[in-house]
Design brief:
InterPro entries: Autotransporte_beta, Autotransporte_beta_dom_sf, Autotransporter_adhesion, OM_autotransptr_brl_dom. The chain is mainly β and 248 residues long. The chain has a domain at 77-246: Lipocalin. The protein contains no helices and 16 strands. The protein has strands at 5-21, 24-40, 44-61, 65-82, 88-105, 107-108, 113-126, 129-135, 138-144, 150-163, 167-180, 186-191, 194-199, 204-216, 220-230, 239-246. Strands 1, 2, 3, 4, 5, 6, 7, 10, 11, 14, 15 and 16 form a 12-stranded antiparallel beta sheet that branches. Strands 8-9-12-13 form a 4-stranded antiparallel beta sheet, with no helix packed on it. Strand 14 (204-216) and strand 15 (220-230) form a beta hairpin.
Amino acid sequence: MVGFSDNYTHVQVGADKKHELDGLDLFTGVTMTYTDSNAGSDTFSGKTKSVGAGLYASALFDSGAYIDLIGKYVHHDNEYTATFAGLGTKDYGSHSWYAGAEVGYRYHVTEDAWIEPQAELVYGAVSGKQFSWKDQGMNLTMKDKDFNPLIGRTGVDVGKSFSGKDWKVTARAGLGYQFDLLANGETVLRDASGEKRIKGEKDGRMLMSVGLNAEVRDNIRFGLEFEKSAFGKYNVDNAVNAGFRYSF
């Protein structure tokens, strides 16, 4: 998106339990998240601090198929500054919730190399906001309506593992496409002369990622992943994900 930038730091912690069932391993757990983001363009800037909590379940079948489910609620504290029409700085709270499902199948080309097609669908609800103020004696309002994002993703990962006596390292690369199935909300600007509606548009982008995952003994796992996207109106220039997991 021309003239728009968004930088964020996201931290997630969680705990889950493994259930060994006939033909599959089931993991059920809880997660907590914190996000600190800064966004801006030629006409506005904003800061958001978000705290969320959710439940998830992952089923890993002996056949190589898997299903991931997650539900999450997030509360946002926002500070919004606009340079047009004397809006100034506004503080407000908002919230959102999401439910997502991902399915995939890991097919082993050799014992150590695999290819994994995936598909994901995420549905949510995002609360809107409304500001009212005066500029040179004129009453103005700006309202962002509530909206329900519906986002799909399809893609494929490939990977290869290298192992020793008590360690294993897996290198992987992924290519996918993410797309909006519903338009992203609507903004209504109103003054003495009438109102103007700015409707959100659907977007889509190609996703690219590379990563390394390491396993030490049977209970320590950590990984590093680099992601970016292209060919969309809104793209992720660079994202770095680091993870650590300890089992007991």
